[in-house]
Here is the input.
Amino acid sequence: MPDKSPSIDFGEIERNLRKMAARVPGAEDRLIGLALMAGVKLVQDRTPVDTGALKAANAAKWHGGQQPPGTVAEGESPEHFPLEARSGEGYLYNSMSYAASVHEDLDAYHDVGQAKYIERALPELGEELIRRLADDLMKEIAP
Here is the structure.
């Protein structure tokens, strides 16, 4: 039986978003910010939880904005992202120094969350993210 799920042409959607963004000053960076804020939420849902510090330390930074790390557990000190985002750039990161080792440890068992919690979350943004970006951009073009 053939697959009847709808086919989504992300290339066409991207071209249309770029055309619309060209009409709104700063839209590209705002779109990147929206995408990264959605990414932070998705990553937080998958971050392994022990004390909660790692989950709270997920953050994003883009040209002209940021979603800084949240409150962390007592005694923990989140680091700040060392790079400044240029126009058209954005970063999704975890500000705790041990985040990379937790992210990469495929042998660790987590009651809550998973290894590769950032890497595995990004492809899932898909259709919902594009819908949110298009809606936000349309509000800018035709308020």
Remarks:
- The mean pLDDT is 77.
- The chain has five helices and three strands.
- The helical segments are 10-22, 27-46, 53-56, 99-104, 126-141.
